[in-house]
Design a protein that fits this description.
With 274 residues, the chain is α/β, with parallel strands linked by helices. It has one domain: Ribonuclease Z/Hydroxyacylglutathione hydrolase-like (Metallo-beta-lactamase, Chain A), CATH 3.60.15.10. It is 37% helix and 23% strand. A 7-stranded mixed beta sheet has the order 1-2-3-4-5-6-7. Strands 8-9-10-11-12 form a 5-stranded mixed beta sheet.
Length: 274
């Protein structure tokens, strides 16, 4: 199944956004190519995609100095089984909440996914070994601003701003305006507060990198907020996961990727958990 690559040339850094196929949920992984090193974020869900992503990393012919896991969902951490084998010794960084989640629930998550999908997914969960602290950090001469948010789309979520390049990577906190969102938690009000805060901190960024699909712009934050407001109301009315998914599709008939809402509704109603 074909993957896609979007390369963004910005001052001091080249960003490579590797996107899985539509069948594989358009999961994104990100390479920040700096003058002498690579910082790599997220590792794909399916192992063949992770192998293709690792091939891309190798072709850049620069050392990976840090892997980063943006949040605690398996479609973003399963592939670290491949990346850590292909690039041994590279630290895997994440927020403390993400580390705790993967350490505690990761084995159960991967066992459940492997029972469902077989060898397409990892046999184990790689627990991040380095805490990614929020704050500003200069890496390879480029300013990175790391921010952490709890209890929004995920239990714990990293956002990365490159203010001098006018790029923000928000991963699954937002979705493209053209697509359904993954609404896997019922903390809708707090999610809306986080989106408003991220909008302020993005400070007019020109490019927004999300967790699924091609890079977009800051309009995706407003579009996601509109989606979350509807999801909050629908959740209060729906009788279960199938009703929730049907109502969301009816509210947003123009949005692509309807299977995303089918899956996330099962997570939201704990039909599938974790």
């Amino acid at each position: 199944m074909p993957t896609a690559l979007t390369t963004l040339e910005r001052p001091g850094v080249t960003l490579h956004v590797f996107t899985a196929s539509e069948d594989n949920y358009l999961v994104n992984s990100l390479i920040c190519e700096l003058p002498e090193e690579l910082l790599v974020v997220d590792a794909q869900m399916f192992l063949p995609d992770a192998e293709d992503f690792a091939d891309l990393i190798e072709r850049l012919r620069k050392p990976v100095t840090r892997f980063v896991l943006s949040h605690n969902h398996p479609d973003h951490f399963s592939g670290f089984e491949v990346l850590c084998r292909r690039f041994p010794g590279v630290p895997v960084a994440a927020l403390r909440g993400v580390i705790d989640y993967v350490e505690t629930l990761g084995p159960e998550v991967m066992a459940a996914r492997r029972a469902e999908m077989g060898s397409l997914v990892a046999s184990r969960a790689v627990v991040p070994d380095t805490e990614q602290l929020p704050g500003e950090e200069v890496i390879g001469g480029v300013r990175f601003v790391f921010e952490g948010y709890d209890d929004a789309e995920a239990e714990s979520q990293l956002v990365i701003h490159l203010p001098d390049q006018r790029v923000s990577a928000v991963f699954d906190l937002a979705c493209r305006a053209e697509d359904h969102c993954f609404t896997v938690r019922s903390s809708f009000d707090h999610w809306l507060e986080v989106l408003a805060q991220v909008q302020r901190e993005a400070n007019g960024a020109e490019v927004l990198i999300v967790g699924h699909g091609a890079p977009t712009d800051l309009g995706a934050l407003d579009a996601t907020a509109a989606y979350v407001r509807v999801a909050k109301d629908v959740y209060a009315q729906a009788s279960g996961h199938e009703d929730f998914a049907a109502r969301m599709k009816a509210h947003f008939p123009q949005r692509a990727q309807p299977k995303w809402i089918d899956l996330s509704a099962m997570l939201l109603y704990r039909v599938i958990y974790p």
